[in-house]
Amino acid sequence: MLIINEGNERKGNKRLLIDEYTSPLHRIMWVYNAEEPDKRSFENNVCAFHVGNGYVLTVAHNLRTQAGIIKSIDNDTFHKELHFKLDGAQKNFWFDNYFVDDYSKKMYIKQLNPEHLESLAQLMRIKRIDTRWETLAAKKICNPYLVIQFKQPSFYGTTEFESQFAPYQTLYERESGRYSYFLPLQIETVFYAADIALYKIINTPPAVINKIPSIELDFEFLEETPTGFACLQSAPNSPLGRLLSQATIDGMLDHFSMFYDDFGGNFPLTGYRYHISGYFRFGTSGAPYIYYNTASHTFKANAIQSEASGIQFSIKNDRDGNFQFINAIATPLQNIKDELLKVIKA
Fold first, then answer.
1. pTM over 0.85
2. What was the pLDDT predicted at 320?
3. Which percentage of the chain shows pLDDT scores above 70?
């Protein structure tokens, strides 16, 4: 809960929303070989925000997109589920590009040039190998983590929790000067029509979870823009930073668009949405739209950034492919209120 006392009045301090010690905004990244730092790689970065008790909200559409290639896979899983799909030449090509570690019993991709990577991706498409992120998580090939980063080498300014983290759960990135902590997540429930996913932090002591700032949820469907309505998202040039950008609800819609999924079947994104104007950067799907509630003296999250809404324009009388994305489509949390509360209040 984000509150600040100022004089005799309780007023919202917007800087709390972007400060690394008080912001509820973080990132979810999917990690191959999380416990093996020399072989670890990060993929599928989305904005996410903590809503308390270890529950984290973000978008859902990235779960059913394809990774393209598999960076590593347990050797037994490969032989049970993928090996039989390949013919002789394809098996030779696969083993030319992967090696098996005798200790971990895992198969790792070799360092490849872009041409080889594209050939591997093409092979996986031809053989219909399911590389959707939800599938990779279900098979424990690649797993989601909440990434929390600081400028100083301590978790929220204190060293009391350092013993709670395994060595592989911390990382100093010299180039950015940031200290990262990785908290394992599990997918708790997914609301595909609303384009919202709920994760939960797992295998982490409650004291650590309770140290992470959270933001209250507001389930009102807003027909007008409340005072201070804004999008809390990644900074324009890097996901390391945070941006709180004013937004306006320009309209509302009963939404319908189709999300294409070759393996699970296509599904529609439906339900009420806000049509919003205001700055948003690509790659900030999952960012919350917030406002300051003067009755409770707290910031509240009311909606989640879901899609871009393009305005088509012409260049030399040519309209093909010419779009400006200055508007956004956001999902009000009201769409999932009953189902969400059943989970987080259970």
1. yes
2. 75
3. 94
Q: CA dist 193 to 51, 165, 187, Å? A: 21, 36, 16
Q: Cβ distance 278 to 246 under 8 Å? A: yes
Residue 19, SS3 per DSSP? coil
pLDDT in tens, 220-278: 999 999 999 999 999 988 888 999 999 999 999 999 988 888 888 888 899 999 999 98
How far is residue 283 from each of residues 75, 156, 179, 185, 235, measured CA to CA in Å? 33, 26, 22, 20, 10
CA 85 to chain centre: 31
Give 39's contacts (C-beta < 8 A, 6+ positions apart): 32, 33, 72, 108
Query: Among 4, 157, 38, 185, which Cα is nearest to 106's?
Result: 38
Question: Which two structure tokens, joined as six digits, stand for 53?
Answer: 């008790």
Question: Which residue has tokens 């871009």?
Answer: 308
Q: Which helix (H) or strand (E) holds 265?
A: none
Kind plus residue range of the DSSP H or E element containing 96: helix 88-97
Give the list of residues 6+ apart from residue 228 with CB closer than 8 angstroms, or none: 12, 14, 291, 292
Contact, 299 vs 292, CB < 8 A?
yes
Whole-number mean pLDDT of the chain?
90
Query: Which token pair is 184?
Result: 């394992």
**In a 3-state reduction of DSSP, which class is residue 45?**
strand
Under 8 Å between Cβ of 262 and 256: no
DSSP codes, 134-199: HHHHHTTSSEEEEEEEESSSSBTTBSTTGGGS-GGGEEEETTTTEEEEEEEEEEEEEETTTTEEEE
Strands (DSSP E) contained in the chain are 5-6, 9-10, 25-32, 41-52, 55-58, 72-74, 98-101, 106-109, 143-150, 170-173, 178-191, 196-201, 216-217, 230-234, 242-246, 248-259, 267-277, 288-293, 298-312, 323-332
Phi, psi angles (nearest 5°) of residue 229: -65, 130
How many residues make up the chain in this entry?
346
The segment with the largest mean pLDDT, out of 103-107, 212-216, 311-315, is 212-216
All residues at 6 or more sequence positions from 305 whose CB lies less than 8 Å from its CB, including other chains = 47, 59, 231, 233, 280, 284, 285, 286, 287, 288, 289, 328, 330
